[in-house]
Amino acid sequence: MMNWKGLLSGLLWLGLMLGWVGCETDKGPQTTVVCDSDTIRTGETVKVGFHDIPNGDTQLGGGDKDFPVRADGTINMPLIGSVKAAGKKYGDLEAELQKLYVPNYYRQLTLVIKPGERFYSVAGEVKAEGRQLYLGQTTVLRAITSCGGFNEYANRRKVKIIRANGQTETVDCRKAADNPKFDRPICPGDHIVVSRSL
User: Fold this and answer.
1) β partners of residue 81
2) What is the CATH architecture of 45-115?
3) Are strands 45-51 and 63-68 parallel, antiparallel or unpaired?
4) Domain 118-198 belongs to what topology?
5) Exposed site from 32, 69, 134, 158, fewest CB < 10 Å?
6) Looking at beta carbons, which pairs linking 5-12 to residues 24 or more positions away fall under 8 Å?
7) Does the pLDDT at position 170 exceed 70?
8) % of residues, the chain, pLDDT over 90
9) Buried/exposed 161-195: b ≥16 CB within 10 Å, e otherwise
10) Cα dihedral value 88, 89, 92, 96, nearest 10
11) What is the arithmetic mean of pLDDT over 97-111?
12) What global pTM score does this model have?
């Protein structure tokens, strides 16, 4: 007597596997990556511009100043101390700081907050691994080129991207070199790992 339950389970599993393989080879990457450039992250730098400060003020100085976002997600601001920054939008932090400074410390002050320098990193089998300045839209192949390219030991078929949010994906850079739809975007805070081929 045929075990219909087992047969259906097997067919379902086979269908899922074929569907998965089809997605990977025929249609290319299925997830869309959108770089969130408006959210502040730990390890980055926030650039704060202090404007319209009364003459003679020496506490804030004036102009743009860089404040690193510390491991606990805070920045250390003059006069007011630690303020939580990580996870907030730049506009929200700007409004929050404005309220903390005016009218408590100043009758008039204009704050402008924008991103400081942002980075991605490349490690493993490249010619010059390390942290690279994020200058705008880039891809995994361009990121690897910025590190001198692959070395002779690199496994170009299994390059791992560890996203700033912890998600990971593996890219076949040989495919990406032949077809740009496989060349995945790189965002600030992403980490690329090029493994060694066997």
Assistant:
1) 77
2) 2-Layer Sandwich (3.30)
3) antiparallel
4) Outer membrane lipoprotein wza fold like (3.10.560)
5) 32
6) none
7) yes
8) 57
9) bbebeeeeeebbbeebeeeeebbbbbbbbbbbbbb
10) 40
11) 90
12) 0.68
Which residue, chain included where needed, has tokens 């007597």?
1
Whether omega for the bond prior to residue 78 falls within 30 degrees of 0, making it cis, is no
Q: Where in the chain is the domain with CATH 3.30.1950.10?
A: 45-115
pLDDT tens-digit series, residues 7-59: 445 544 444 443 333 333 334 455 777 787 788 988 889 999 988 877 656 66
pLDDT the model gives residue 22:
32
Query: Looking at 75-89, 103-117, 147-161, which range is the least confident one?
Result: 103-117
Q: Please, where in the chain does CATH 3.10.560.10 lie? A: 118-198
Token pair 């060694």 in the structure block, residue? 196
Structure tokens at 42: 């730990």
Phi, psi of 139 (to 5 degrees): -130, 175
* Highest averaged pLDDT of the listed ranges 102-106, 117-121, 123-127: 123-127
What is d(CA 40, CA 83) in angstroms, rounded to the nearest whole number? 13
Higher pLDDT, 141 or 5: 141
- Range list of H helices, 89-128: 90-101
Q: How many CB atoms lie within 10 A of CB 144?
A: 27
